[in-house]
Amino acid sequence: MEVSVKENEFVVLSISEVSSSSSTSFSKSEPVFARFGSGSGAPELRFGQESQSGADIVINLRGSQLFRLGPAESLFISEVFEDNKETGYSRGISIQFKNKEESRSFHCAFEQWKTEMVVQGPPLPNGAVSTSTSKFDEKIEASSAKMYFHYYGQLLHQQNMLQDFIRTGTYYAAVIENRADFLGRVVVDVGAGSGILSLFAAQAGAKHVYAIEASEMAEHAKKLIAGNPSLNERITVIKGKVEEVELPVKADILISEPMGTLLVNERMLESYVIARDRFLVPNGKMFPAVGRIHVAPFSDEYLYLEIANKAIFWQQQSYFGVDLTPLQRSAYEGYFSQPVVDAFDPRLLVAPAISHAINFTLIKEEDLYEIEIPLKFACSVSTRIHGLACWFDVLFNGSTVPRWLTTAPGAPTTHWYQLRCVLSQPLYVMPGQEITGNFRLVAHRAQSYTIYLTLSATVGDMLQTSSGKLDLKEPYYRMSQPQVYSSAQEPNQLLQTQDVLTQSWVEDGLVPVQQPSPNHGVELHTL
């Protein structure tokens, strides 16, 4: 029998309840219609039959999620309201389509109607104004979030990350070398971007991967995954924030690339931890599982003069007849408030590094709002200290092959480079002299951190102290390759115990997080 189908209407072979809390009463001899519309003033999906107009199942698309279980089978999870009933309940409905094309068309229609809901906004009872916001929205300025998701929604920025072969290759190795962790498991990719990590997980034999991405990159991820037919039936892309979306099952493994400059910039680590609390089964695995921030004092006259000289422009007393000097001090302070992002020669370090470990499997989200690292170094040379150098690494603690990804100076350069906090007032130190201080990171609503740095050293009876306040959100992207140093500048090579991760150290991935090698001179503070 040929069935007439209207616009925004689909004929499905069957629908069935996932739970037994309610049941359908549709006749098996008559086709079931799935109609998108807005009869209640909000985008909705209605299942029904022509002969049973009063027995329709109505799904408000707000908060609903659609998952592809197979080529012609999907699953709806939603708050459902039946006609003439004011209260609703969570319902899972399995939908069987005639073929793959019908399923694809249905999914496209669902996304279009969900988009319409976002543009128009959800209806509110009695004209009330909604005040409900997600945890992400409460913490982050709307303007910052808009720019953030716009940036990561562009393919050119995804390409920049994909072409970081150290980053991408390490993730690939960490997944493929630990197939036993992924085989037959449910995986959630947090902040999936292009979907590359989801595809890696599927290659390693994951039972199903839920790729969560809040930016427009989700649409590109769907295309990329659809273009890999041997894997796409085991990957579902979900557009939304991890703080807001719902999943039909718990995950055995979380995989993500939540690291920003200095590990914590962009505050995505918090979303990674929230995803752990919402979706991960007890004792589930996280790739990566641990991150470490490494810091060490450095000496770099070239960099210091480069920054200081930027403010010379404001020393002009007659710039087209205008005296610029009233702003000279503010400009000088402004340039030193920018952390420097570049690659530097590890010989610039003048003391062994201190490491601060963050265990993603245990840390509370709130503990990432403020991070404090006490500083205590023993200087190896006589020099001027110009600030604090920083880098990070993360551990993929696989059951078969633990593997590290490092951004250390001296290791192959990544798109994260390294970071240096330059002080406006250098410190003079002698060999063996103790340097103390504090390095504090305080999160702010622009998805980044304010850095408070203090370094102190005593020369004779004189205590030297230099402090700086820097905004991790506004770095100076210098990003030069490490400079070649003359022999007159090489006393710092006497530092043989600095915590620089060598290539073999990275490839082996066997250095324990809890007990760094003593000959690395690391003092470890753990959250």
TrEMBL record:
PROSITE patterns: SAM_MT_PRMT. It comes from the Eukaryota. It is an enzyme of class 2 (transferase). Keywords: Chromatin regulator, Cytoplasm, Methyltransferase, Nucleus, S-adenosyl-L-methionine, Transcription, Transcription regulation, Transferase. Signal peptide: none annotated. Its EC number is 2.1.1.319. Its main location: cytoplasm. Transmembrane segments: none annotated. One of its GO terms (biological process) is methylation. It catalyses: L-arginyl-[protein] + 2 S-adenosyl-L-methionine = N(omega),N(omega)-dimethyl-L-arginyl-[protein] + 2 S-adenosyl-L-homocysteine + 2 H(+). GO terms for molecular function: methyltransferase activity. Residues 292-445 form the Protein arginine N-methyltransferase domain. Residues 8-114 form the Probable histone-arginine methyltransferase CARM1-like N-terminal PH domain. SUPFAM superfamilies: S-adenosyl-L-methionine-dependent methyltransferases. CDD domains: AdoMet_MTases (cd02440). The keyword Electron transport does not apply. PANTHER family: HISTONE-ARGININE METHYLTRANSFERASE CARMER-RELATED (PTHR11006:SF10), PROTEIN ARGININE N-METHYLTRANSFERASE (PTHR11006). This is type I protein arginine methyltransferase. The gene is LOC107020950.
